[in-house]
Amino acid sequence: MNDGQINWQRLSCLLAQRVITGLAQWLDARKSGALIIDDTLISRLNAKQTELLANTFDHDRQRYLKGYRGLTLAWRNGQLVLPVTTAVLSSQKARNRVGTPAKTLDQRTLAGQRRAQAMRPMPAVALELIKQARANGLKAKYVLFDSWFTSPKMFAALNDQKLIGIGMLKRTKKIYYRYRGRQYTVKTLYQYLRQSHRQPRADYLYSCVVQAATAKLPLRLVFVAKRHCANDYLVLATTKTNLTPAAIIQLYSRRWQIENYFKAAKQYLRLDQTQIQDYDGLCAHMAVTMMTYDLLAWQQRRQPGDPTIGDIFYQLDTLLPIIDLATAIGQLLGELTNLKVTKSPAKMIAQIKTLIDQFLNGLSIQTSALITLSMSNS
Q: How far apart are CA 378 and CA 375, in angstroms?
């Protein structure tokens, strides 16, 4: 575990790629894959001499705690989430690092490169993980991230890698966006759209295409009402400006699945419960936990079980393809032709009525009502 020569990031990438390939027949090919980047706090409250230990800000408690940030890259296609690779991050600022210094920073060794990565900015490391995952065979079209990583520079960097970024914007006064020849912050742009008397939609408030002032990159912004908070809103952004607002919201909602991984890994796989003091051992512990989760997800997906409601509808749609009205009428005429002739007119009328009722019940409501009206008029 403490061997600094093992490339745990590449190993976890290769395992995730093999698991995805092995589960291809159980996954819906219609849903494109997306990479999710997020971080979680790995607290070490009682540690004192752990290598590169740092005072890390906990967003839930709104205060600093001793520990690390477990930056994680996951893959999701709408049905399944698999962690791909991870980096154990310390702090950029030397004054925040309270543990023992790094054993080595020799960039000729894997151990030195790993420790240097731990002290780089988190968005830069996120881009490194994405690049490494794609180099090891992971295929994805979108990258999803929260406001901690969202910036025009991040969107531009993903665009250079031929990836579509979808993230939540911060309402900061430091970043401006050009809209109709004028510069706006996110907050002032929302106020302008609201004062322009645009009617909010049912599933979102406003949507517009802007240009980031720093990266000179077109972005589509979608303002969404914040649930349970009156007069508050969230702002989603993407580099693919021809995506509909509904599609942007639906894609971004997949990001939440990585939180389920963090919860399961901490509760059942002891992600944040280790006494390892060596930094290489911490990286190994994170990677082994991640690979364990991948193997459990692989086994669970392969187990035969009751299909979900979504799977049932998908199977019914496959088994019973939609046919046009002309084909349906032809089938009805064939059934009427094959009716057995009986001596009782009442029985013949009853059989014909039963077939017609079955035919009408299988049509859409509008078509059935139109045919019924035509029959009554005639």
A: 5
Q: Where are the domains of the chain?
A: 1-146+255-323, 165-250
CA–CA gap between residue 111 and residue 102 (Å, rounded) = 10
Residue recorded with tokens 């993903």: 158
CA torsion 138-140-146-147 (nearest 10°) is 110
Pairing state of beta strands 206-212 and 81-89? unpaired
Per the listing, tokens 């060596």 go with: 278
d(CA 71, CA 146) in angstroms, rounded, equals 13
Going residue by residue through the chain (378 aa), what tens digit of pLDDT does each one get?
A: 888 889 999 999 999 999 988 888 777 666 678 999 999 998 888 887 888 999 888 877 788 888 899 999 999 887 788 999 999 999 888 888 988 888 889 999 999 999 999 999 999 999 999 999 999 989 899 999 999 899 999 999 999 999 999 999 998 888 999 999 899 999 999 999 988 878 888 788 899 999 987 778 899 999 998 877 767 899 999 999 999 999 999 999 889 889 989 999 999 998 888 888 889 999 999 999 999 999 998 888 777 655 555 555 555 445 445 556 667 677 777 777 777 777 777 887 888 888 777 777 766 554 555 556 555 555
Contact between 236 and 224 under an 8 Å Cβ cutoff? The reply is: yes
Structure tokens at 166: 């979808």
- Cα angle at 337 between 331 and 340, to 5 degrees? 125
CA–centroid distance for 296 within its chain: 20
> Which tokens in the block code for residue 23?
């589960």
